[in-house]
Structures are given as structure tokens and as C-alpha cells.
Amino acid sequence: YTPNIDFFYTLLIFLLTIIVILSSFTIGIIWQIHYVKLLIFTVFGLATTLIAISWLWNPSATFSGLELLMSRYLLSIGLPFEQWIRKIAAFAENETSAEGFLQASMRELAALNWVSGVSWHSNNTHQEIGETTHFISTFSFQQLHLTLYSRWQFTPAMYLHVQLLTQILGEFYEAKRREETISQNAYMQSLYETGSRLTHDIKNILQSLGTLSSAAEQSNHADDDARLVDLIKKQLPRLSQRLSSTLHKLEEPGVEKKNQAKVSHWWKNFKQLNAHYQVQFDAPTHLPKTDIDPDVLDSVVDNLIQNALEKARLEPGISINVALMPSNHFCIEVTDTGSAIPSEIADKLFKSHVSSKSGLGVGLYHAAQQAENAGYLLSLMDNADGEVRFRLEKTTEQASILAND
Predict the structure, then answer these.
(1) Helix (H, G, I), strand (E, B), or coil: what is residue 276?
(2) What is the distance between the alpha carbons of residues 110 and 169, in angstroms, rounded to a whole number?
């Protein structure tokens, strides 16, 4: 292990020693005083001076002391430090892009009296401002590489000052780059979520068309034809409504169209449209009086039913129940008697996309997002073999707002 030696402290101690020896010798020659006695006086005098300087360096809270004055002097060589910070912050606020901020800051840096020219390299681009000289200083901060051409050679204190100024510039530049990245990611996420919602709606439409096609293939008698015609009459309005809603989302992806209907009216139509499925529907005698969004409920509840039907296809013999709960606000539950959802999928079901063979995680994730945006909460209440129960209910805040209206 080799200890680090501070050159400046060593030089300071050496100079103090030389001052003590030479001053004692000179005063002794001039005043004809014994050297040892004079050496003692000189040491005590120097100690008193150092104590006074140390107190003046940082005396108390009422006086800033020499430390602050020295720091302000070092930070303000050639340019007030506060002024530089203010200009850089103004550029960061006014410029919309990181490159625009960098160019404005470089022009400000090149305008300083002791700077002849500046060149920088960032993101595979190289630019220059001003004139080149023989006095070159280079600085690097992550993706930014800066070369400064000065009118004279920088002293160590001046170099540290310039390094601090350019480091602040580099930090602001990285902040602008991160801001651009976050903005781009947010834009791509909005496109992705819009496409995912449309894909989910189109999947529901195709599933309904597949049901009609399957029913048409299995129709062999006149009675079956009559039931098929009745089924088509029930499904066509629903398909037309979903196609219209999907086209509206394509034309105006940022605008969510909200409809309102009574629970009783929606429940009656929903049972009729899904009567051909092997699903049991239950409801209390007195339905809630609250208004609901039929488009959201059709999409979310239909997704739950389709997932349960897919499970029934893989696990024959299970039953599916859709029940309106006796509550003052809207609450509906979809239950199946199949196997439980694996815990690693259940933990992430409504929080992120989950890889699964049936696409369960993707559909339920977007269904939960759609429900939340409309003021509903989709949750998994029970997850056990023989009872997997999902609940969709109107949140307390949304219910209270509608009640006040």
C-alpha cells in the first residue's frame, strides 16, 4: 500500500518552514537578538497568525468568512457563476430538443472573452463554432465530447472552473436527452395501447362471427334454420354496434365515447345476445338504479365469458355463471368451476401483459385498463380449483358522482 501525498499541502508546509527560518535569521541579524529566543517568538507569532486566519476562514453564522469569498472567486473567474446557471436553465426551458439546447449553450460558451472556439461531438454529429487555437482543453460527459480552444493556456484554477461550467452544461444536456426519450416512449406506448385495444375489439368481433359460422355449419334441419335466423337477428345489431365503436376509435383514437344506460335495459339485452352460450345468468329481484356504460360492460364481461368458454373447451364439464350482485351500485361476477389460474399469472393479471397460450393475460390487462378509465374496477376475487371468480364493479367515487348528479 502506497500512501497518497498531497503536493499542495506538502508545498505549503515547506514554505512555512522556510519563512520561519529565514524570518528568524533576518530579524536576529537586524535586531541583534539571540537566534533561539527569536525562533521561539517567530513560531508563536506564526501560530497566532494561523489561528486568526482559521477563525476568519469560517467564523460563525453571522459572517460568511474567507471560505465563501474564495469559493465565489474561484467559481466566477471570467464569468459570474450564477449568470451561467441562469442562462443554461433558460436554454433548457425554451429549447424543445436536446440538440437545440446544445447549440444555444455552445454559442453562449463561445461568446466568452477567453474562449476562441468550441467543437463538440454527440450522437454521431460533429459541429464547430469559432476559431481554433493552439491552447486546447477537452472535456467528456457521457455522450457529449467537448473541445475548447482558448486564447491562452488555462491555469489549474481556470481549468477547474471551465470544467465545472461544462459539466453543468453536460448534465442539462443529458436531462434534455432523457426528456426526449421519455416523450418518445410515451408516444409509442400510446400507439401500442391504442392498437392493443383495437385488436381486442376486433378479436371480440371475430369471435362473434366465428360463433355464427359454427352455428350455420351445424344447422341441418328447418328448426335449426329458424334458430339460426333468430341468432343472427340478435347478433347483427351487436356486431354493428361494435364495428361502429371500433371505427370511431380508429378515426379518433384519443377520444373515448361514453354512453349511459340503465342496468335493467343492459342486462336484458346482454342475456338475449348470449343466450346461445352454455352460461347461467342470475340477477336479484330489484336491480340497481344506477346508470352504466354499456359499451364498457359489453367488452369487459364478454371478455370474461369468452375466457371461461375457452377454459370449458379445454376442461369439459365445468359450469359458468354470470351474476348481478344485490348492491346499491353496479356489481357483476363471472364464475367458473374450472382449475385455478397459476399464481405466477394471477399476480400479474391486471398489472401487465402475461404470456399465455390463450392470450388471457393480454385480454384481461386491457379489459382492466378500459374498466378503470370508465370508473370501474375489475378484480379476481377467488382463485381456487372449482371456483374462479372475477368481479366487475363501479368504484365508490364514480358511484357517488352519478348519485349526486
Answers:
(1) coil
(2) 13
Give SS3 for 34.
coil
Buried b (16+ CB within 10 A) or exposed e, 312-335: beeeeebebebbbeeeebbbbbbb
Q: 280: which DSSP letter?
A: E
Cα–Cα distances (Å) from 267 to 271, 272, 275, 324, 402, in that order, read 6, 9, 12, 9, 19
260-404: CATH topology: Heat Shock Protein 90 (3.30.565)
Q: Give backbone dihedrals phi and psi of 386, rounded to 5 degrees, phi first.
A: 95, -10
Question: Is the distance from CB of 309 to CB of 322 less than 8 angstroms?
Answer: no
Cell digits for 242?
361494435
Better pLDDT: 153 or 390: 390
Cα torsion angle, 378, 379, 381, 387, sign: positive
Distance CA 157, CA 284 (A): 83
| Cell numbers given for 103 | 447549440
Give the per-residue pLDDT at 184: 81
Between CA 269 and CA 279 the distance in angstroms is 15
Task: Mention every residue, 6+ apart, whose C-beta is less than 8 A from residue 85.
Answer: 168
Average pLDDT, whole number, for the chain? 78
DSSP string, 348-403: TTTTS----TT-HHHHHHHHHHHHHHTTEEEEEEEEETTEEEEEEEE-HHHHHHHH
Q: Is the pLDDT of residue 215 over 80?
A: no
Q: Which residue has the cell 359450469?
A: 319
Find the angle CA(32)-CA(33)-CA(36) to the nearest 5 degrees.
140
Question: What gap in Å lies between CA 59 and CA 67, rounded to an integer?
Answer: 10
Closest CA to 352 of 182, 185, 196: 196
- Can you tell me the distance from the alpha carbon of 370 to that of 367, in angstroms, rounded to the nearest whole number? 5
Q: Which of 202, 200, 231, 226 is nearest to 214 (CA)?
A: 231
Cβ atoms 116, 131 nearer than 8 A? yes
Task: Give the three cell numbers for residue 56.
Answer: 476568519
Q: Which of 69-78, 159-168, 173-182, 225-234 has the highest mean pLDDT?
A: 173-182
How much helix, strand and coil, in percent to the nearest 5, is found in the chain?
A: 60, 15, 25
User: For residue 401, what pLDDT is reported?
Assistant: 47
Residue 256 has a CB neighbour count (10 Å cut-off) of 15
